[in-house]
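Regression test case RT-17, inverse folding.

Input:
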């Protein structure tokens, strides 16, 4: 049974995480000379501009109900590499902008938690109001962890996730045509891995990957104080 505070903190963490993630993509493209995202209204902080029905709503809720790490994706920000001086490099910068924004937010959450711990003794935290205690003990760690999950999940080299631009950047040019041909099949296969494999084989490869990456960084960020 999902508790109300857990649900509220999850939503309040996930929404700004995906909004700033997508806005960062658009802002990076705009700074590189591409106005496509700006003209499409994707530099907005309005969550409705970035929602993907499955990746932003259904998938995170299903993962939450299954007690799995909460992650997902929003509508990909439109951009046109033809505006970039170096399309391949520009594509890489735009791809990295979203996960970088999530990493920054995770660090800010940890910094806020550290500041609270430093300013207030443990007894004061335990005696604080329920709202403040939930903010410190539940929201801030969850905010950091969800941002880390989103950053490392989106770095997977599978379209339309951001890691595909990184993979395309390091792949020799002669293999790019074949790579783009298989892109259309990659996401459905990946979703099968995410949803079905843990139940069929009792092995969760994405969960293992996120524990090794996001979980390790989270432990490091919250190991101070």
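Golden output:
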């Amino acid at each position: 049974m999902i508790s109300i505070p857990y649900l509220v903190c999850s939503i309040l963490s996930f929404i700004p995480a995906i909004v700033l993630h997508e806005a960062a993509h658009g802002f990076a493209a705009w700074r590189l000379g591409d106005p496509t995202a700006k003209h499409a209204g994707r530099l907005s902080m309005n969550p409705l501009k970035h929602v993907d029905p499955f990746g932003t709503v259904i998938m995170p809720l299903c993962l939450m109900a299954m007690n799995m790490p909460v992650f997902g994706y929003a509508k990909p920000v439109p951009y046109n590499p033809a505006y970039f001086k170096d399309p391949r490099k520009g594509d890489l910068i735009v791809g990295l902008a979203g996960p970088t924004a999530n990493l920054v937010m995770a660090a800010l959450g940890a910094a806020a938690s550290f500041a609270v711990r430093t300013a207030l003794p443990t007894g004061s935290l335990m005696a604080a109001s329920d709202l403040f205690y939930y903010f410190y003990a539940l929201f801030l760690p969850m905010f950091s962890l969800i941002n880390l999950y989103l950053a490392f999940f989106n770095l997977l080299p599978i379209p339309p996730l951001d890691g595909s631009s990184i993979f395309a950047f390091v792949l020799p040019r002669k293999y790019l045509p074949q790579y783009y041909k298989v892109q259309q099949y990659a996401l459905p296969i990946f979703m099968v891995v995410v949803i079905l494999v843990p139940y069929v084989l009792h092995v969760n490869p994405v969960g293992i990957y996120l524990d090794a990456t996001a979980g390790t960084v989270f432990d490091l960020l919250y190991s101070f104080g």
